[in-house]
Amino acid sequence: MKSIAFLLAVCWYSALSSPAAVVIDDDAFGRSLGGWSKKDTGTAEYPLSGSVYRTYKPEISPTPDGGIFISVRIDHVRGWLSTDDHAVLELTISPKGGIVSAQSSIAIQGKSIKSEMILGGNEGGKAIFSPEGAVRIGTDLVADLSAKLLRENIVEAGRVSFPAALRHNYNRLFQAIRVDGTPVRAAGSATPVTQTPPAESTKPQEPAKPGESTVKPEAVPPVATPVPEVAPLQVKPYN
């Protein structure tokens, strides 16, 4: 019995001391895109740059190091008589919420355009945890896709703006990352500073003039007015 109790205590302690759990808040991600469809809870449609796009709920799987791998399908809705274009956005998130890598591919007119693997590691191989670093990854990803689309001579409005739709989803996914239920810090945010009442002016005092006291007038105690002495009586003899 003692051994069983000891094992239970060890398991309980291990659960408490386990590393932070990183997840994607599906509800927050869906709300940022206008809300998941009530008819089909797995998609959300929204207008962007004059075109309509459809995002599916992300597919998430754990990575060996305790992070997560996210795969999101995004469609360019082109109408009843046209075939929709498709794209996939893939992100790898570290256990601490940092973006390790990002990659995307777009299928248009039977052509597949795939971006380079945008790595979010520094020289030490560690994931970038700062929001500024996440912005750089998203910028590089869209720039790579846009350049490859131009080389394919794709000029249709909804297709040209497809990389921007991917960036839109990328930003929303980053804002939906939760580490132990806590959102990732937004770019430019900082710890609020407690306001303190303004201190008294520290303006340097002007040097005293020769013969002038450096003590403030209000600091000098009042001097009592001296009582005038009474003149002595002078008595003169009469006649």
Give me a quick take on this structure.
With 239 residues, the chain is an alpha+beta fold. 26% of the residues lie in helices and 25% in strands. Helix 3 (131-151) packs antiparallel against helix 5.
How would you describe this structure to a colleague?
26% of the residues lie in helices and 25% in strands. It is of the alpha+beta class and 239 residues long. The strands form 2 sheets. Strands 2, 3, 4, 5, 6, 7, 8 and 9 form an 8-stranded antiparallel beta sheet that branches. Strands 1-10-11 form a 3-stranded antiparallel beta sheet. The chain is globular, with a radius of gyration of 37 Å. The termini are far apart.
Average pLDDT: 77
Percent of residues in helices comes to: 25-40%
The helix count comes to: 5
Q: Determine the structural class based on helices, strands and strand pairing.
A: alpha+beta
- Strand tally is 11
- Distance linking N and C termini: 135 Å
Subunit organisation of the chains: single chain
Shape summary: globular
Radius of gyration from the alpha-carbon trace, in angstroms? 37 Å
SSE string, helices as H and strands as E:
HEHEEEEEEEEHHHEE
Largest sheet: 8 strands, antiparallel
Percent of sequence in beta strands = 15-25%
Parts with pLDDT < 50 across at least 5 consecutive residues: 10-18, 187-197
